[in-house]
Structure formats: C-alpha cells, structure tokens
Design brief:
Number of helices: 2
Radius of gyration: 16 Å
Order of helices and strands: EEHEEEHEEEEEEEE
Distance between the termini: 40 Å
Oligomer: single chain
Helix content: 10-25%
Bound molecules: N-[(3-hydroxypyridin-2-yl)carbonyl]glycine, fe (iii) ion
Strand order of the largest sheet: 1-2-11-8-13-6-3
Structural class: alpha+beta
Length: 219
C-alpha cells in the first residue's frame, strides 16, 4: 500500500527539473501548489462530462476511465476509431470549458520546458484505479506534431514507460508522483509510451485513484 508520509517522499533529493531524453522534460512537483484546485476542477468537469470507459476499435473497453474539457476532446468507439470531437458523444453537449487554472498551468509548464506559445485546445482527463493500466501507444491524432503535450499527474503514484519510436523498443521507467508535470515534444513527440498497472494505495487528495491531465494543441 502507498500511503503519504512526511518521511518517504519518493522525489526527495531529486532535481526539480530533469531532461529525461531529448524533448521530454520532467518538472517535479510543478503542479503541487495548485493540486487541490486542479482536483476540484476535475470534479466539476466530470459532473458535466462523466468519466467513461471508451471502446477501442478492436471492440475492447479501456480500463482507464476518461473525460475531456476544452473546445475539443479525444474519444474512441468501435466504428469511428480514435479522434477529436467538439461534443461529448455521451451527452451530445459541447465538452465543458477548460478551467482558466488548467490553461495557465499548461502554458507555464510548456514555457518552463522551452516551448513558448503553447495554447491547448484539448485536455484529456484519465482516471486510473488500482489494477488498471494504459498500454504502449503513440499520440498521433493531433494535427500538428510540432506542439508539445503537457501531462499532469495527480493522486496515486504511477510508473510511466517511455519507449522509442517502435512498439518493441526498450522503454525506461519513470516514476511519477502527485504534482509532477511531464512536457513531451520535439523529437520525442511520437515516442511510444504507456502507464504500468497502478498499485493499490490511498492518496489524501484523490483517494484510490490516479488522475492524469494531458493538454494538447489538437486542432
Ligand atoms: C498518463 N499519458 O500519464 C498517460 N501521452 O496517464 C499519456 O498517454 C501521455 O503523459 C502523451 C504525452 C504525455 C503523456
Ligand atoms: Fe499518450
């Protein structure tokens, strides 16, 4: 079980900023101060656009639950495949607006990592329960691969797998904890990546969940 204690901060002593590979910057605890507000905004957004387990083209359901906010949102179903849409297919309503706090944080993180002028139009919200995982994939549904992706981790810790440009390439394991921000772009933009099976635990801010926000310039 993972429980937060003052005495076992897994990122204690690690650098605040780390270049993991060309184009991937880990900003440790970058979102920590805003984390409580981020989590309450996630609750508001997902009241309007509830978390759901999307079906992938092969007919399987994802174990990770997803929602979106912003002008466009990522979705998938059996027939249409992976794509961005302006309306939530479950409610036929536009996705909830992206909270100002989200935009601010994403732009600050991008700029800190060396990507000026980042302006997200999509925020995908992933929710992991213990036992769930995200298999290795590339993010290829965005229009312009020159824009980075900003990824914010909240709640239970996870191991992020950072792979190469082919699915079978070896990956490095990156531990991500509450408040960490990963900025992902440039030559790394099309690397395979995934999230290993979440371990059980309890986090004071999210309970038995990990929440991940990925900000994209998708349209
Ligand atoms: C996650 N993240 O951390 C899943 N994709 O829950 C992603 O799939 C991801 O963190 C592109 C860029 C950064 C990411
Ligand atoms: Fe991804």
């Amino acid at each position: 079980m993972y429980n937060l204690s003052l005495f076992d901060d897994p990122s204690a002593g690690l650098p605040k900023r780390e270049d993991l590979t060309e184009g991937v910057v880990l900003l440790r605890h970058f979102a920590l101060e805003k984390s409580a507000s981020l989590i309450s905004s996630v609750a508001t957004v997902t009241t309007l656009a509830p978390f759901r387990h999307l079906m992938i083209p092969g007919g399987l359901r994802m174990t990770v639950a997803m929602s979106n906010c912003g002008p466009i949102g990522w979705t998938s179903n059996r027939k249409g495949g992976y794509r961005y849409v302006t309306h939530d297919p479950d409610t036929d309503l536009p996705w909830p607006p992206m909270p100002e706090l989200f935009v601010e944080l994403a732009c600050q993180a991008a700029s800190e990592a060396g990507f000026a002028d980042f302006m997200p139009d999509a925020c995908l919200i992933n929710r992991y329960a213990p036992g769930t995982r995200l298999s290795m994939h590339q993010d290829i549904n965005e229009r312009d691969f020159n824009a980075p992706i900003v990824s914010v981790s909240l709640g239970l810790p996870a191991t992020f797998q950072l792979g190469g440009w082919r699915r079978q390439d070896v990956s490095i394991q990156v531990p991500l904890v509450h408040g960490d921000v990963l900025v992902w772009g440039g030559p790394a933009r099309l690397r395979y990546h995934g999230v290993r099976t979440l371990k059980d635990g309890f986090h004071p801010n999210t309970g038995r969940f990990r929440i991940n926000l990925t900000f994209r310039q998708a349209a």
